[in-house]
Amino acid sequence: MFARLGAKGAALALAIACARVASPGAAAVWLVNLLAAVLRGAGNKKAPSAVLWLTAVAQVVIGGVSGLGLGPVPHFGMAGAAAVQLVASAIRAALLVALLRSGRAAVTLAVGTVGAVRLQGVPFGAILRTGATAAVSPIMSITAIILLNRGVAGHGPTVLAGFGNSTRLEFLPTPLGFAIGAAQRSRRQSRPPVKSRLRGTMLVLGIESSCDETAVALVRGDRTVVAQRIASQDEAHRPFGGVVPELAARAHVDRLTPMVADVLQEAGMTLADIDAVAATAGPGLIGGVMVGLVTGKALAFAAGKPLLAINHLEGHALSPRLSDAGLGFPYLLLLVSGGHCQLLGVEGVGRYRRLATTIDDAIGEAFDKTAKVLGLGFPGGPAVERAAARGNARRFVLPRPLLGRDEPHFSFAGLKSAVLRQWQALGQAAEHASGQALPEQDETARDDLAAAFQQAATDCLVDRTARALRGFPQATALVVAGGVASNQHIRSALSALAAQHGTAFVAPPLWLCTDNAAMIAWAGVERLALSAADRAALGLVDGLEAPARPRWPLDPGAEPVRGAGVRA
Length: 568
Description:
3 domains; 5-stranded mixed beta sheet; Nucleotidyltransferase, domain 5; single chain; alpha/beta
């Protein structure tokens, strides 16, 4: 706080603050902070208590003063406006005092919480370098902001108060209405530190929100999924034929908080019982990623637990080890999903070597676009697979991009375009012959074209994977993961390929292929099992400042690929 800046620095900061704000109330808050700093600098052991009470009194006084600027209240006039604001401020102060005096609160909420706030900028940002978590009251246009920063300069909790107009704040969208019930139980018996506990007893809370599934799970180090919830958004996105990012993010906001509460309740646990919070930090739709990551940060801060910012692709990459205890490193991974198609050498936790990637479309995207062209509905992958099961894959001849080439990568844009051209040609022929469009005239042609597409895509995957197996002979197994890995036709073809090469084939159960929080929690368990030195060396130590990332390659040092760009 100010004590760190010295007497001249404190005076300068106070002068800047008073110059920056227009209201007497905000200046009064700064005076409270300055007095608190003086008490701390003098070594007064009662400083935290003094800060608490001074802040509470300031809230009440400021409430009455600022109420005069609201204008008259009908039937009550200016005095009524001041009285309403005074009561609101008194309620906030009472909540603050009650919660902090209990010694248990890590996050304090005012009446009607709407979100978390992180202090950002000058002058507070230069003082609270360790960051802070806050709650905002919407009463009287966000009149007061209550901040609780744990452990500043070893003095324990510090309470600050300020006006929204006097400080630049970054609002992070997350529902925290249940955070009071999840306050840190610092006075009660807690679990031993992670480093002193066996891997089998580790318990990690996982959060996944990178696309259109909202998911929460509790996973133990012995591979037990203690509890989990997955909420799909298929119905919301079906009218649009694909995922609408804004709708997805809003759904995550609505669903995530109660799902966390449900998972903890089902497991009969609280936040005090877990060892860490693992949340997807990317890649994905940035709105959804932010919702899940900020919620994870708030929970980790409230419970005093480590935050693990997990790469969504790493969750998929390690998910086979959740279902198969015998799978060891290294292994060759074919990662196939709606946004990615990659071959990776998985050499250990945090150690991935990209062997191949797509130079244009991901295979999941090709499935979705094919389903849309053929009018098969949403989600596209399962719809194409169902139609293909009824069709004849030999009826249509479609291209196999890069098949047999020395280049190790994938390409699906040409295949997708070939399906579109073939479908358009069939429709024109049918309309010319009978005056009817194809969708009502020949359902068999739709199924046959879906089957031809699925076979062509599978042939491309098998050919490229066979090449990678020859170039990565140290692999203990061929592993497939990601949403497209739930396609039974593709799984069967890859299983046959592994048998030809005398290599074990591992595929997670179907529920673990699509987006879920169990794989995110398991990636967190895998991290915690590493030594602190190894985590630091691999860059796997996360703080509350961990960013949300729309793009995040597993192997950032891989050689750039023509056409792939940031998708690599």
